[in-house]
Write a structure and sequence with these properties.
It comes from Tritonibacter scottomollicae. With 250 residues, this protein is α+β, with helices and mostly antiparallel strands. The chain has 8 helices and 9 strands.
Length: 250
C-alpha cells in the first residue's frame, strides 16, 4: 500500500513538472511572437517544403541543401515545417526544420550514411573525424534547423534572431518532443557571438571533417545545438524574466 502511494505521488509530481515545462514553453513562444510583432515582423507557416523552396528562390536564396531538399526526401507536415518571415505583408526570408528519430544511433552515424547518398552517389562518405558530441552524445529525436535566409536589404537589424530561434526551439519541442535541436553556423559567425545570441547552448568546433570538396559545406562549420533540458531551463528563465529575452544592442 505504501509503495503504491509513493508511485502515485511520483507520477503526480512528474505530470505537474511536465505541465509546468509546457506552460513555460508556451509562454516563451507567445513572448517571442509578441516581441517580433512589435517590430512588424510576422512568422507565418508554409504548407510544404516544396512551396517554401519556391518562395525562397524568389527572394534570391540558393536551392535547399540536400538534407532539407524535397528532391531527396518525401517530407510531410508530420516530420517537417517551414516558416516565412514577413514585414508589413512582404516576405523577406524564412527557415525550415525537419525531425528525425535516430533511436540509439548517434548523429554522426546518420551523417555518414546519408551524406554518402546525397553527395557522393553512394560511394565513400565525404565526412569523417566526428567530434565526441556527434558520435556519442546527440541521439534520439533530433530536429535539424536550416535554410535560414534573409533577402538583400533586410539583413541588418530588422529581425531579432533571439526571438526567432527561441520560438523555433519551443515549437520544435512541442511538435516533436525532441531530445536535441541542432544546426550549423559558420566559424566566423560563431566568433561574432551569433550562435549564443540565437540561443544555442552547445557549440562544437570541428564536428566533422569534409574529405571531399562540397559546395556550401566546410570543415570550419560549428555544430550548434540545444538539448531538451537546456531548453526547459531557458524557457523557465525567460518566462520569469521576459525582459531578458530580447537580443542586447551590440
Amino acid at each position: 500500500m505504501i509503495d503504491a502511494c509513493v508511485r502515485r505521488a511520483e507520477r503526480n509530481t512528474k505530470c505537474l513538472r511536465c505541465i509546468l515545462q509546457e506552460h513555460n514553453l508556451l509562454t516563451l513562444s507567445h513572448n517571442c511572437l509578441a516581441g517580433l510583432s512589435a517590430s512588424s515582423v510576422e512568422l507565418l507557416p508554409v504548407p510544404s517544403i516544396i512551396d517554401f523552396e519556391r518562395r525562397m528562390a524568389a527572394l534570391g536564396k540558393p536551392p535547399n541543401h540536400p538534407m532539407m531538399s524535397p528532391k531527396w526526401h518525401d517530407m510531410s507536415p508530420v516530420d517537417s515545417f517551414a516558416i516565412m518571415f514577413e514585414v508589413d505583408g512582404q516576405e523577406i526570408g524564412g527557415v525550415a526544420a525537419r525531425c528525425l528519430d535516430l533511436g540509439e544511433d548517434a548523429l554522426a552515424k546518420h551523417w555518414q550514411e546519408t551524406y554518402s547518398r546525397m553527395y557522393t552517389n553512394g560511394e565513400t562518405s565525404p565526412v569523417s573525424g566526428f567530434s565526441g558530441a556527434a558520435s556519442r552524445e546527440i541521439r534520439g529525436r533530433v530536429v535539424y534547423l536550416g535554410e535560414l535566409f534573409l533577402a538583400e536589404g533586410w539583413r541588418k537589424g530588422v529581425v531579432d534572431w533571439r526571438l526567432v530561434f527561441h520560438y523555433l526551439f519551443a515549437l520544435s519541442y512541442l511538435k516533436w518532443r525532441s531530445d536535441w535541436i541542432y544546426g550549423f553556423v559558420r566559424q566566423q559567425d560563431v566568433m561574432r557571438g551569433k550562435a549564443s545570441r540565437y540561443g544555442f547552448t552547445r557549440q562544437y568546433v570541428g564536428p566533422q571533417t569534409w574529405t571531399k570538396c562540397v559546395e556550401r559545406r566546410s570543415s570550419q562549420e560549428y555544430l550548434v545545438a540545444i538539448s531538451r533540458q537546456d531548453l526547459f531551463d531557458a524557457a523557465a528563465f525567460y518566462s520569469a524574466s521576459p525582459e531578458d529575452l530580447r537580443s542586447p544592442a551590440i
